[in-house]
Amino acid sequence: MYIGGGEAVFMGKNTVSIPGPKSGEANNGKLTGTCINAVDGVAIKAGNLVSDGYSARSYLILKNPRLYIFQKSSYITEAEIVDGQFSLMLSGGTYECLVALTGFEAYFNDNCKIFATNTTELKIVLSSILMPGQARIVLTWGKEPKDLDSHTIVPSLAPNGATCDVSWNSKVCNGGHIQLDLDATKGMGPETQTIKEFDAGQYVYYVVEVIFETQNNWSCTVPVFPLLIAFLSSMLAIQKSQAGVFQMLRCDITLREIS
User: Fold this and answer.
1) pTM across the whole model
2) Is residue 99 one of the residues assigned to a domain?
3) Taxonomically, which superkingdom (predicted)?
């Protein structure tokens, strides 16, 4: 069982457990990757100082995070993430991956796919717990395309004023109420935006592929933190249907509606 929001994470071991992989099995695959901070991209490891979203290098990580692997709610194995990196062998299949660490929202991925005889690379991005009434949008994707840009059109503070588009070329809007924390240009993300104060009106979040590098469809995930903001609680799967066409998240703060 997984309950999120950064407040509590419960991990249960069922009476029926699925055996883990045996050394030398032909259907084994490798799961490898990194674990970084959503705000500044610094490795999540014991002794590191990372940004808490308010001040640079201000939060001291006291211990290494742990990666827990489940399959169909059954506990499989776990591993310590050392120096922000991890690597383990698993039988080919689909798993649930969970990372929990004090001071951060729990990471949960119910589609950790391991392919036999191959290596699956996973970038785990942890978001520090926010103050009540705030939100953080974290965009991640695969190795291709190399560069995706996240944008949020935010309402004007002045009546009938112009809206502002938070992105790589306009990193702060509305006097710091919303900002772009991290801009990724080498694939996988994250692109991170933090809303420190919501203003009345409509917010529109969208994603732009900077260079159309491939004709293949790509997908990305956009977790919105924290889960305590009920009308913003969602894990978005944005699909590219054709060049330049992207699904968007619309959130009306005044009407408390999301679409």
Assistant:
1) 0.79
2) yes
3) Eukaryota
Task: For residue 7, tell me if it sits in a domain.
Answer: no
For the chain, the residue count is: 259
In this structure, the answer to whether residues 92 and 186 fall within a common structural domain is no
Distance of CA 201 to the CA centre of its chain: 25
What b/e readout covers 60-70, taking b as 16+ CB neighbours within 10 angstroms? ebeebbebbbb
How far is the CA of 178 from the CAs of 154, 164, 165, 172, 205, in angstroms? 8, 10, 10, 6, 12
Residue carrying structure tokens 């698993």: 90
Of 43, 18, 38, the residue nearest 194 (C-alpha): 38
Domain with residue 115: its CATH number is: 2.60.40.1120
- Of the three residues 105, 126, 147, the one that is the final residue of a domain is 126
Strand duo 219-225 + 135-141: pairing: antiparallel
Please check whether residue 237 is in contact with residue 183, taking contact to mean a CB–CB distance below 8 angstroms.
Answer: no
Average pLDDT of the residues in 40-63: 94
CA dist., res. 165 & res. 178, Å (int): 10
Per-residue model confidence as pLDDT tens digits over 77-110: 999 999 999 999 999 999 999 999 999 999 999 8
Name the burial class of residue 20, with classes exposed (0-12), middle (13-18) and buried (19+) by CB atoms within 10 angstroms of its CB: middle
DSSP string across 224-257 = EE-TTSGGG--EEEEEEEETTEE--EEEETTTTE
Range of the domain at 101: 28-126
The percentage of residues in the chain with a pLDDT greater than 70, rounded to a whole number, is 71
pLDDT digits (tens, 9 = 90+) for 201-211: 888 888 887 66
Q: Mean pLDDT score of the chain, rounded to an integer?
A: 79
Task: Using the CB atoms, write b or e for 175-196: b if 16+ within 10 Å.
Answer: eebbbbbbbbeeebbbbbbbbb
Residue type for position 149: D
